[in-house]
Predict the 3D structure of the following.
Amino acid sequence: MSDDNEKTLCAHVADELHVKDPPAYIALIEPATHYCQGCGRSAAKAENVCQPQKLP
């Protein structure tokens, strides 16, 4: 697994992935199955957020 695949969404946003490569960012969040209790971001996989909680 590359370093990029091990980053959380918080790290990707800090690196401006959502600005530099929107399709790559969208792939991480769609379809959302989890959200972060810390920042509220949603993600397709639990490992993509810092404090994952499953969406109902």
Remarks:
- The beta strands are 34-36, 42-43, 52-54.
- The longest strand covers residues 34-36.
- Residues 22-29 form the longest helix (8 residues).
- The two ends are 29 Å apart (CA to CA).
